[in-house]
Amino acid sequence: MTPSSDFPLTEREQELADQYTQIATLVGSLAHEIKNPLSTIRLNIDLLAEDLEHPQTPRERRAAAKMEAVQRECQRLQQLLDDFLRFAKVQSLELQPGDLNSLVARLLDFFEPEAAKSRIEVIRYLDPNLPHVMMDAETLYAAMLNLVINAQQAMPDGGQLVVRTRGTKSGVAVDFIDTGGGMDQKTIGRAFNAFFTTKPDGSGLGLPTTRKILEAHGGTLSVQSEVGRGTQFTIELPVPARLTR
Q1: Distance between the two ends of the chain, CA-based, in angstroms?
Q2: CB-CB neighbours of 103 under 10 Å
Q3: Which of 93, 181, 189, 206 is packed most tightly, with the most Cβ within 10 A?
Q4: What CATH number matches the domain at 96-243, 3.65.10.10, 3.40.1170.60, 2.120.10.30, 3.30.565.10?
C-alpha cells in the first residue's frame, strides 16, 4: 500500500521501503525459480516410485521406503513455496462493496461436511443489520477459510466453532471462537510471525498471510486465547460512510 501524500516518507524511510521492495521482488523471483526444478524432481521421483510400487526384495523395499520419504519432503517443500508466494503476493486488492454475511455463510456451508467428519459443531450468529463493507471477496474468503482450518486443527477430538458477525463503533467484526486447546501468551506473541508454527507440517505463513490480507482491506486481525479453554480470532473491517445504511 502506498503511503498517503499527506504523510510523505522521510528520505531514510523511502530508502528502506525501496530496499524492502527490491528484496521482496528478489525473494519472490527466487521462489518461482525453485518451483521449476522442484516440479521436475517431483515428476521423476513419482515415475521412480511407480517402478517400485510392488517391491519384492528387501533391497527394493528399502528403496521404496526412501522414495516415499523423498516424496513427502518434496510435497512439504512445494507447500512451503506455495504458501510463501501467497504471502509475498498480498499487496493491492480490487475492493468492491459486498455483503460480509453472505461471504461468511458461503464459507460455513462449504466447511460443514468437513466439520461433521471432524465432529465439530458449527454455530453461526450473523447480524442481519450488518452494513456492507469494501472487500476483495475471494481473497477475504481465503483469509477466513484459513481461520476456520486453524480452528479445526485446534480441535482434533472435535468441539465447537462459533462464528459471529457484529457491528462495531467503526465498522464490522467477525469472531471465530473455538473450544480447542488454546495458546499461552508466548505463543500468542509469536502467532503472526512469518515461519513460526507449532504444527509439525505447518509453514508458519497462514496467519501472517491472513493478517496481510486484512490489513490490505484496511482492517485488523487480533487473537485472544487461554490454554485449555480455546481461542478467538477477530477480524475487524471499516465501513465507509457511503455504505452505511
Answers
A1: 28
A2: 19
A3: 206
A4: 3.30.565.10
